[in-house]
Design brief:
Elements lengths: L2 H5 L1 H6 L1 H18 L1 H14 L5 H50 L2 H6 L2 H8 L1 H34 L2 H7 L3 H38 L1 H6 L3 H53 L5 H13 L1 H28 L19 E9 L9 E9 L14 H9 L6 E6 L2 E2 L5 H6 L1 E4 L10 H5 L8 H10 L3 H6 L17 H14 L4 E4 L11 H31 L1 H7 L2 H39 L1 H6 L3 H29 L1 H25 L6 H42 L18 E11 L2 E11 L4 E6 L5 H8 L7 E6 L2 E2 L5 H5 L2 E4 L8 E2 H6 L7 H10 L3 H4 L9 E2 L8 H14 L4 E5 L7 H14 L4 E5 L11 E6 L2 E6 L1 H7 L2 H11 L1 H5 L1
Parallel strand pairs: 5-6, 9-16, 9-17, 12-15, 15-16
Antiparallel strand pairs: 1-2, 1-3, 3-4, 7-8, 7-10, 10-11, 13-14, 17-18
Helix pairs in contact: 3-5, 3-8, 4-5, 4-13, 4-26, 5-8, 5-25, 5-26, 7-10, 7-23, 8-9, 8-14, 9-12, 10-12, 10-14, 12-13, 12-14, 13-27, 18-20, 21-22, 21-27, 23-25, 23-27, 25-26, 26-27, 31-33, 35-36
């Protein structure tokens, strides 16, 4: 358990001055803590024996006042230094984790899912920070304070009374040891369950279009409910064990009180102890409640921190597969790329994906690599990108083996355009200049013009400064792909890799849980406890009890003051924390581009800006808490005791307010206990404020109108689709579709073609009711689609999206999607129909082969085949193919076209395609331009018109390259 400190020794050594100040200040504070109870005892004895004078009372009051003021400022010193140190540790570890993630290769990301990496980068780091802050404070404060209290009680009062009262200590130590062993295991299991929930949540968000399109909301919710139930049970097991700490300690401390009071009274009766000594002893014994309870919390915090540190270290211990050579070589220009008998297999697989490749590429040459889906085209490119260890055989640049160069140098030669459109949630300008850094608009516009993207960008609301959203969600598939192409061209690379890049181009909860588990329980407990003590005080002395009532408005005003100023910091901290999480997640998802464009340093620098901002506000919050929470409470506690001494001392001197010794003893005891619940409340103020801010953010999101889920079914539709004067805008008055009308009879196949951004995908979004039109009506058979629930609309419509999304699971689970209506046999039949069995049958477990996050082990074409089989397995009345064959080679596409011909009978087909050769046999072809239908007819009819369709078809026939030339 305590080994967590040895694992963090590097940080403590690095900040030894800070922690030396903390320890020294803690010792000073603990020494000062011993004096006020002793002064109180002396005062009581002076009162009892009628020896109190005005001079002695003044001396005691002055000494008392000086001590509580000095103690307050010394506590500020250790508090600020300690907890700022913990925030620094969190920042350093977060930076370290991010740097590590940016160095890792694809194999690392195939073994570690995004949600788990996110959990280790957030929750686990928070637990480690608690260890370095609260853990260190508790370890030194509780142990040093306890030792001091025992020594003072023994030497200044009575060793026999001390040993008798502390008879329960060994039992507390034994209980803490047993609890500690169990908490480590349970917390590790809870964090693992949280990681799994994180994985599922992220995947559900990324795959929400598939979930909705296939009407799987209920099944997805049920699966998520099962996962959250597991998380709940694991955290409940931790909470149940946590709940045993305080009662166990309080029972044993209560036993100490009972024994101490009984034996102490016996000593007083036998004149072996004075009343003042007994009061002082009782106060000291009460002071031991905090270190005893703190030791219980220490065990909890250390075990959590230990478990979290182990989880983080497991990630940091994994090394990148590809590293720089010790003595790297360098060349000025890559003149010749040589593949000499190159073979390669992905880690964990036995079959070679590349076999004995011999290829020589000279500078200036254009090499086209073709082949079936899964034939190794992308794998061949990845050898140049050095995503994996060097292949067998020889891969050379200018005759030098590629692994003799640094990663920085090899990647500096390459401009990479992957098939998946990987964009960052930044502006278009920032996405385009990602590989170059700041660049002039003139240079950008020149490339935009050559790639026919300038008019699209100019049409956007803010042009180059338009934010594209997460993964470029605000752009069409073709626009995203061309942005990727321009990004690579702006680098002016020696080697340009286009991985099927023209396929789409035309010619805050945890805090709330803490609120319910700890904060509410503490507040109710504290309020009830304070009420009981105040009632007892009124029974003893009404006048002084009235003065003690001032604690309630002071506490209320205190909480309001803290809430006002801490809320500002917490809102910023939670917001920045969300940005940090988004940055980590986006970096994980876009790592191939970050590494290919050699932007790891820049990405780290961007992350450090967020990380430092988070640290800066955390540091300010720590200072605020140091001045206004626990330390200020200590000052008030001291002031209350000072008032107590003055009140009774003055009463004795003036002859007013004389009370019995028993009442004096009881009042001193109750007054000390009054601050215990206040201390509990103040300790929970930071958690309360964090929970309040987090709750505001969560409920603000929950208040947004969502999509109601209606599982009520309608009879299977025939597939008649009619758009009647439909106009649609994603943003107000910025219409994408204008007064669009067309009719599709049941069983017809209709293709939609047009330049990128012409509105083709928007038609499908409206049909599936991902969005609703502002004007006009859409009919499915006799139904007005807006009079049906969204699930009823989608029950008989399926879609194969432009970007294939694959869920974690198995090959079959991706086809069935947990829907009991789709049998294993039906799913396998669909896979065979689309030709996916050709690569699935070669897998070790075939149809039960595990699938990693987003199908990372499969090529894009293979993932698209799985998506296609998924749609066919659900046997829809209307099948939408949104660029469904863009990622599939010509031969495989031929197989799918044959399958489509068979399945098209009795089924309406709506097809978006840029390859016009794939839609020549469609019953209708609708040509779109800027949201309007400009041509409609069959393939032959449109060619005869020699309009837009004719020009597009001619361009594809003669070749895009020739047209640009």
């Amino acid at each position: 358990m305590f080994s967590v400190f040895s694992k963090l020794a590097w940080f403590f050594k690095e900040h030894w001055k800070r922690y030396s100040i903390v320890i020294f200040a803690l010792i000073i504070v603990n020494i000062l803590e011993m004096i006020p109870p002793r002064l109180l005892g002396i005062t009581i004895d002076l009162i009892q024996f009628n020896e109190l004078t005005s001079r002695r009372l003044t001396q005691i009051l002055v000494a008392f006042f000086v001590i509580i003021i000095v103690k307050y400022f010394v506590m500020l010193i250790w508090d600020i230094n300690l907890f700022v140190g913990a925030v620094i540790l969190e920042r350093k570890l977060r930076s370290k984790v991010m740097r590590h993630l940016l160095k890792m290769n694809p194999r690392f990301y195939s073994k570690n899912r995004s949600g788990d990496l996110m959990a280790r980068s957030t929750n686990d780091l928070k637990s480690i920070m608690m260890t370095a802050g609260f853990g260190v404070m508790t370890l030194f404060d509780s142990t040093v304070l306890m030792v001091f209290i025992i020594l003072v009680m023994g030497f200044s009062i009575s060793w026999s009374l001390t040993f008798t009262a502390l008879i329960s200590m060994p039992f507390i130590a034994l209980a803490m040891q047993k609890y500690g062993q169990a908490i480590h295991q349970r917390f590790t299991e809870a964090q693992t369950a949280f990681s799994e929930m994180n994985n599922y949540t992220l995947e559900s968000i990324r795959g929400v279009r598939v979930v909705r399109a296939f009407v799987q909301e209920s099944y997805d919710h049920e699966r998520f409910a099962q996962i959250t139930e597991t998380v709940f049970k694991k955290n409940k097991a931790v909470a149940e064990l946590d709940a045993l700490f305080d009662p166990t300690i309080k029972i044993l401390v209560g036993l100490s009180y009972t024994i101490g009071l009984g034996y102490g009274t016996f000593l007083v009766i036998n004149d072996q102890l004075s009343i003042g000594d007994l009061v002082t002893f009782n106060i000291y014994l009460g002071m031991m409640i905090w270190p005893m309870i703190a030791l219980g919390h220490l065990i909890n915090v250390l075990q959590r921190g230990h478990a979290s540190l182990d989880r983080v270290e497991k990630i940091l211990a994994q090394k990148p597969d590809v590293t720089d050579p010790e003595q790297p070589k360098s060349i000025s220009t890559p003149e010749v790329i040589g593949f000499n008998r190159v073979s390669f297999s992905y880690p964990g697989t036995e079959e070679n994906q590349l076999k004995q490749i011999n290829l020589t590429i000279y500078r200036g040459e254009t090499i086209g690599v073709v082949g079936k889906t899964g034939s190794g085209k992308t794998t061949l490119f990845k050898q140049l990108l050095r995503d994996y260890l060097p292949p067998k055989g020889e891969l050379t640049i200018n005759g030098i083996e590629i692994d003799q160069f640094t990663l920085e140098e090899t990647r500096s030669w390459i401009g990479y355009v992957p098939q998946e459109q990987i964009l960052f949630s930044k502006t278009i300008r920032e996405n385009l200049s990602f590989g170059t850094g700041p660049i002039s608009d003139q240079a950008i516009n020149q490339i935009l013009t050559s790639t026919s993207l300038k008019s699209d960008i100019d049409a956007l609301p803010k042009g180059l400064d338009t934010i594209v959203g997460e993964s470029g969600v605000t752009l069409s598939g073709g626009q995203k792909q061309r942005v990727s192409l321009v990004r690579a061209l702006l680098v002016d690379p020696e080697i340009l890799i286009l991985d099927d890049s023209l396929s789409a181009v035309d010619g805050e909860t945890e805090a709330i849980k803490e609120f319910y588990v700890n904060v509410l329980a503490t507040f109710f407990n504290a309020i009830i406890y304070m009420g009981g003590i105040l009632f007892a005080l009124f029974l003893l002395n009404t006048r002084l009890a009235m003065i003690c009532l001032l604690a309630i408005p002071i506490l209320f005003l205190w909480i309001k003051f803290y809430q006002k100023y801490a809320g500002k910091y917490n809102r910023v901290i939670r917001s920045v924390n969300s940005s940090i999480n988004a940055s980590i997640n986006e970096s994980i998802q876009t790592m191939p581009i970050i590494q290919a464009f050699r932007r790891t340093k820049e990405r780290q620098d961007e992350f450090e800006e967020l990380n430092h901002r988070h640290y800066r506000y955390q540091r300010q919050l720590v200072r605020l808490e140091s001045f206004t929470t626990y330390n200020l409470l200590g000052l008030l506690r001291g002031a209350a005791l000072l008032l107590f001494i003055w009140f009774f001392g003055n009463g004795v001197l003036t002859g007013h307010g004389l009370i019995t010794t028993g009442v004096l003893y009881a009042f001193a005891d109750y007054l000390g206990r009054l601050f215990e619940p206040m201390e509990m409340l103040i300790h929970q103020l930071p958690q309360l404020e964090q929970a309040r801010v987090s709750a505001d953010r969560v409920f603000e999101m929950l208040d947004l109108d969502g999509e109601a889920v209606d599982d009520k079914e309608i009879p299977r539709i025939n597939g008649h689709v009619r758009f009647d004067q439909v106009s649609f805008a994603y943003e107000a008055n910025d219409y994408i579709l204008h007064d669009l009308s067309f009719n599709v009879e049941p069983g017809e196949s209709v293709a939609f073609v047009g330049h990128t951004g012409s509105g083709k995908s928007s038609i499908m979004n409206l049909l599936l009711r991902f969005y609703d039109q502002q004007k006009g009506r859409i009919f499915l058979d006799q139904y007005n689609s807006q009079e049906l629930s969204r699930q009823q609309v989608r029950q008989h419509i399926n879609i194969v999206l432009q970007d294939p999304f694959i869920f974690t699971g198995t090959v079959l689970s991706n086809i069935i999607l947990n829907d009991p209506k789709i049998t294993r046999e039906k799913a396998i039949k669909a896979l065979k129909t689309v030709g996916a069995d050709q690569f699935i049958e070669k897998l070790p477990l075939k149809y039960d082969q595990p699938v990693g996050e987003n199908g990372a082990d499969f090529s894009t074409g293979q993932r698209q085949l799985l998506s296609f089989a998924r749609a066919l397995a659900f046997d829809p009345a209307i099948l939408i193919l949104d660029e469904a064959t863009a990622s599939i080679d010509t031969e495989t596409e031929g197989l799918i076209q044959t399958a489509i011909s068979i399945l098209a009978e009795g089924r309406t087909m709506l097809i978006i395609a840029h390859r016009l050769s794939t839609i020549q046999h469609a019953d209708q072809i609708i040509v779109m331009n800027k949201g309007k239908m400009i041509e409609q007819g069959t393939h032959d009819e449109l060619l005869a018109q020699k309009g837009n369709y004719y020009q597009m078809f001619k361009m594809q026939q003669v070749g895009l390259a020739e047209q640009i030339g």
